[in-house]
Design goal:
Structural class: alpha+beta
Distance between the termini: 49 Å
Strand content: 15-25%
Radius of gyration: 22 Å
Shape: globular
Low-confidence stretches: 1-18
Mean pLDDT: 92
Largest sheet: 7 strands, mixed
Helix content: 25-40%
Oligomer: single chain
Length: about 475
């Protein structure tokens, strides 16, 4: 999402976990009057995938009290065995929404509990802890997540092609004809997003064929993470109605531009709502405050470990390269650096509303865990008064290796294996972000994912080596 013209950040008020019966009965009645028959009592797993049980509206109050139990051993990243008690979900009352594309269903995201206690390995609980830490310092955390995606169709052999087979322009960015060609899908998703109050500002055709981006309003970090999970679920259903699929896979094509999910971040004063990243008198000419620079310093200090969460798949690192067989530069970050409105850095400071954009995030991330990690890193930078140095104005893609070494600019991890190694080296920090159990589980899952991929023999290897020697 490009949010160059957003106003001052609104005050962030942590949600209240209501557990009194009248509130539940009132909401059940409101939902029923609007045609809701079922409620999806939902949480998000370690991979960022939504999970739920479906509850008839007549049992809404029971569900709000945690009646629906989930076997944690059936899913990754919950640290349970078949001998453990089930987990329950307690939805957040103020986060429940009626689904625009399925108005007989409501989506009720919530927190995992074990017995009467919040469960530490719950994604939403991890972000709640980070937001609570920020609140003790007087900060609210606002987040805008860019939504970039491809529309694709599957061929009989399992490969994919652009959803619009005649969308073949070499430089497709901002193309009007192919944008209009996808309008049936885009119109339905934009209408649904606006019915949810997300305020879509614009949408456009991106750099590659049948690749698009949606620009909509930011929110507090918890609401934005909820929106990302709901959007991915909603978009899949809408695209399939139109005979295609949507993917946020960072690199679905080897010869086309990758897809990101950039995080646009700022801190707000909890009392006034003022943007604490803004300073018109900034001596470094980015329009940022010292708080913002310290936040950047913390993010850069923890950048290699953050990348394991923000770019969590094998495929993510096929996007994080300088150049390739595509329309020019990849537009993806490679270097742990920052600059003013400069898209060749991991961190970009846009030219209008003061905020910090991380370009080293993709749409496959768990947005709760990633937002929590970025916030903790930024708060570390503020508390330790870390200085990121002056912004770099040059095109980072054009600097030689010698020039980069002279500047002391390191690179982001180049593979998931490297990212997991960095994640484990920064273990004390990640223990504070995720908790020791979830940190260990995540590292184990991602290491296993890497070796599973690495053990597969690819068509490229057969083509290159089978009869070469």
């Amino acid at each position: 999402m490009t949010t160059d013209d957003i106003p001052d950040q609104p005050r962030y008020a942590p949600p209240v976990m209501r557990d009194h019966e009248p509130a539940f009965e009132d909401r059940a009645r409101q939902l029923a009057e609007r045609g809701v028959r079922y409620v999806l009592v939902a949480y998000t797993d370690v991979h960022g995938v939504g999970k739920a049980k479906c509850v008839p509206i007549d049992h809404f109050s029971d569900a709000m009290r945690g009646s629906e139990l989930f076997t944690g051993a059936a899913l990754d990243g919950l640290g349970q065995t078949p001998a453990d008690d089930e987990l329950s979900v307690r939805p957040e009352l103020d986060a429940i929404v009626q689904l625009p594309h399925r108005p007989d269903f409501a989506w009720a995201p919530g927190y995992l509990y074990l017995g009467g206690d919040p469960y530490a390995m719950c994604s939403r609980t991890v972000l709640r802890r980070a937001l609570d830490r920020a609140a003790t310092l007087g900060f609210g955390f606002n987040l805008g997540i860019e939504i970039e995606f491809y529309l694709v169709r599957r061929r009989p052999d399992g490969s994919i092609e652009p959803a619009n087979p005649i969308d073949v322009m070499e430089k497709a960015a901002y193309d009007i004809v192919d944008l209009l060609g996808a309008s049936p899908v885009l119109d339905e998703i934009v209408t649904a997003m606006n019915q949810l109050g997300w305020d879509v500002h614009s949408f456009d055709h991106e750099d590659s064929n049948s690749q698009f981006e949606l620009d909509f309003s930011y929110a507090n970090a918890m609401a934005s993470a909820d929106r990302q999970v709901l959007w991915r679920m909603m978009m899949k259903e809408i695209a399939r109605k139109h005979g295609c699929d949507v993917t946020v896979m960072p690199k679905p094509y080897s010869d086309r531009t990758g897809t990101g999910g950039h995080f646009n971040m700022s801190l707000a004063d909890l009392q006034t709502g003022a943007n604490l990243f803004a300073d018109a008198a900034d001596r470094r000419s980015c329009g940022l405050s010292e708080i913002a620079y310290h936040f950047i310093g913390g993010v850069l200090a923890h950048a290699p470990a953050l990348t394991a969460l923000a770019c969590p798949t094998v495929n993510s690192y096929k996007r994080l390269v300088k150049t390739g067989s595509m329309t020019g530069f990849t537009w993806a970050p490679v270097f742990i650096s920052y600059g003013r409105n400069n898209r060749t850095h991991m961190i970009r400071v846009p030219s209008k509303e003061p905020r910090v954009e991380s370009r080293a995030v993709d749409g496959c991330c768990n947005p709760y865990l990633t937002a929590a990690a970025y916030l903790h890193a930024g708060l570390d930078g503020i508390e330790q008064r870390l200085d990121p140095g002056d912004p770099i104005a040059e095109d980072m893609y054009m600097l030689s290796d010698a020039e980069l070494r002279a500047r002391g600019v390191p690179e982001l991890p180049r593979t998931l294996q490297e990212a997991v190694a960095a994640f484990e080296r920064d273990g004390e920090f990640m223990d504070r972000v995720l908790g020791r159990e979830l940190r260990g589980s995540f590292a184990e899952l991602k290491s296993s994912e890497w070796w599973s991929y690495h053990g597969e023999v690819s068509p490229w290897e057969l083509h290159r080596y089978l009869t070469f020697f």
